[in-house]
Amino acid sequence: MMPDLKKYKNLISFYGWLTLLIGLGITGMISYYIYSKNYHEDQMRFEYEADEIWKRIQFRMDRYEGALIQARAFFLSSDNVSRTEFHRYFEKTKLTERYPGIQALGLAVRIKKDDLKSHVKNIRKELPHYTVWPEDHRNEYYSILYIEPMDWRNQRAIGYDMYSEPVRHEAMKKAMLSGLPTVSGMVTLIQEAGSRQQPGFNLYVPYYKENVPLKTPTERANALIGFIYAPFRANDLFTSILSESKLNIDVEIFENGEMKAENLIFDFDGKPNFIHSEKVNKFRIVKHVTLNGHDFILHFVPLPSFRTTSDLAYPSMAAIIGLVISFLIFRIFMLTKKTQDVLQEAINARDEFFSIASHELKTPLTSLKLQAQLMKRTLDKNPPNFREKIFNLSDQSEKQTQRLERLVDDMLDISRIRTGRLTIQTERFNLCDMVTDVVGRMKEQFSVIPGGAPQTNYISCENAVGEWDKMRLEQVVTNLLSNAIKYGSEKEISIEVQATSDRVYIKVKDNGIGIPLEFRNKIFERFERASGTAKSITGLGLGLYISEQIVRSHGGRIWVESEVGKGSTFTVELPTIAG
Ligand code: ADP
Q1: Ligand 1 pocket, 106 CB below 6 A?
Q2: For 160-213, what is the HEC assignment?
Q3: 8 A C-beta contact, residue 428 and residue 449
Q4: How far is the CA of 419 from the centre of ligand 1 (A)?
Q5: What residues have CB less than 8 Å from 72, skipping those under 6 apart?
Q6: What number does the ligand 1 atom closest to the CA of 529 have?
Q7: Are residues 506 and 564 in the same domain?
Q8: What is the pLDDT of residues 468-512, one digit of tens each?
Q9: What's the total number of domains in the chain?
């Protein structure tokens, strides 16, 4: 039975740890799975949003391109479009209202060197201060002739030859030769004034003569009349495109093929994330794009708002739930193991009891046997003092029989307690008298103590009258006194009875070995004996258990105060009337 229990306990412990380990493993795996799934989803969402931004920019530029091509068609539809007609056309398109970010819509015409004078003279009829500038000598000139809206900013651009400035020149030439809408590099727009200047660019749509071949770059260069063009302020344009809906990711736009501060033309959140993006951001996209013939770099990183919509809290939640469940299961295993421990302890105590009990029963039996043999021999020999000898031997036998009787009585009491048959029969008596009687009866046993019978101290004995089971309380006092003798190291013993109006106290004090703290409550349990010095002293570990049951069935309490090596004081508290 015992080895099995031990094996069972070890198994429980093993499975407990195993479950914990598996639980932690599964928790880790689930958390990691959720984390990587979320990470993947976040990344996809990030890529999707970055792509959306790029699409929105393209879509808007397509619209502008469309608007410019439409304006070109307007110019082609008539031989001579007047300034007023163009103004009305522009008003009707509502371009600046529908797509804020565009600064103007204009027409730049090509003028051969020889035609310049007549051209200027002609235009001065409607605009007296008109001139083509810068005024230095060139082979051909491109003059901004029409521009809408005709506000003071745009009026500044009239007559300006964009072809004279290298960045614009490059884009115009590209548009002229390819026949395609072309975006220029970053410039400071002519319209730009005041302190809050920002980079801008132009979009050119070439405007050719009709009914001439336009297949080759040369044919196109020869057929060119001018350009329909639109200037944009970069910051205003991109802000207008991106403010259409809430962004969770930041976009920075660069030109000139390199991500550095001087090439930055737009930054959505105004923070230069491109500098340390690798270290700081989990997600990052660098996209090289071409927009109407001009190259840009788009740099995307998540904004703080991107994180709040991501599901990074779930893995930690899963981890916490997993940990709690794993530890709960582990705890259940350990509690089962603890129950097994308690069971084991009980079995150990019972086994020890059997060994002590058989020893306790064997000692008086051996003496009895010896005494019977001695008696037989004495009777055989018939010595002169034979009566005296036989008397002594039967006296000793009687004592051993009494000892045996006490042991059997104790064991009977235990079975009575177990089956609930320990009943008390009350009668009225004075506790002081009862204690005096017991002390008197035990006189002989006190002979080992130098002072003999214990010191008695009775306080208020007139109140010590009550209703209790006399026999049972005698058993308790006898037990406490014989323990005081057994464990009292042959030192002085005292007993005190103290009575109040409704309670009585019996205190038995010795100056013996004392009881270690850890045993103080255990000694009142069945078969329990304080280990150590008590081992050498005979006893079944039943006395205090029975005493406590008796006191309890009177509605009272018993407890001990003790100091190891100095002694113990057992106190019985009883209500005046048992119940
Ligand atoms: P027993 O004395 O037969 O062992 P008890 O139930 O009377 O059984 O006592 C239980 C245990 O309590 C004892 O084995 C002993 O270790 C301890 N004990 C009881 N009384 C005293 C005492 N006065 N001083 C020290 N230890 C005591």
Answers
A1: no
A2: ECHHHCHHHHHHHHHHHHHCCCEECCCECCCCCCCCCCCCEEEEEEEEECCCCC
A3: no
A4: 24
A5: 205, 207, 228
A6: 14
A7: yes
A8: 999 999 999 999 999 999 999 899 999 999 999 999 999 999 999
A9: 3
Which structural domain, as residue segments, surrounds residue 209?
Answer: 78-231
For residue 48, what pLDDT is reported?
A: 94
pLDDT of residue 542: 84
Verify whether ligand 1 is closer than 6 Å to residue 534 (CB atom). Answer: yes
Q: How far apart are CA 169 and CA 56, in angstroms?
A: 28
For ligand 1, whether the C-beta of 568 sits within 6 Å is yes
Asked if residue 539 and residue 433 are part of one domain, the reply reads yes
Residue 179 sits in a domain of what CATH number?
3.30.450.350
Query: Same domain, yes or no, for 147 and 105?
Result: yes
Residue 512 Cβ < 6 Å to ligand 1: yes
Q: b or e along 266-292 (b: 16 or more beta carbons within 10 Å of the residue's beta carbon)?
A: bbbeeeebbeebeeebebbbeeeeebb
Confidence check: pLDDT of 312 > 80: no
Closest ligand 1 atom to Cα of 540 = 3
Calculate the CA dihedral of residues 377, 379, 384, 387 and round it to 10 degrees: 120
* CB of residue 430 inside a 6 A radius of ligand 1: no
Residue 178: inside a domain: yes
Task: Specify whether 189 is located in the same domain as 250.
Answer: no
* pLDDT at 530 > cutoff 80: no
**Residue 45, domain member (yes or no):** no
For ligand 1, atom 20: residue with the closest CA? 483
Note whether 223 and 93 are same-domain residues: yes
What is the SS3 assignment for 497? strand
Query: Which residue's alpha carbon is nearest to atom 13 within ligand 1?
Result: 529
Q: Please tell me the distance between residue 541's alpha carbon and the centre of ligand 1 in angstroms.
A: 7
Alpha helices in 457-496 (DSSP H): 470-486
**Helical segments of 503-579, H only:** 543-553
Determine the distance separating the centroid of ligand 1 and the alpha carbon of 523, expressed in angstroms. Answer: 7
Q: Residue 566: which CATH number? A: 3.30.565.10
Output the residue whose Cα is nearest ligand 1's atom 25: 514
Average pLDDT value for the chain: 89
Query: For ligand 1, is residue 544 a contact (CB within 6 Å)?
Result: yes
In a domain, 535, yes or no: yes
State in Å: Cα 529 to ligand 1 middle.
6
Instruction: Give the closest residue (by CA) to ligand 1 atom 14.
Output: 529
Q: Are residues 461 and 561 in the same domain?
A: yes
Ligand 1 proximity of 542 Cβ (cutoff 6 Å): yes
Q: Is 476 a pocket residue for ligand 1 (Cβ < 6 Å)?
A: no
One domain, residues 278 and 220: no
**Together in a domain, 168 and 256:** no
pLDDT at 540 over 90: no
Distance from the alpha carbon of residue 393 to the mean position of ligand 1, in angstroms? 30
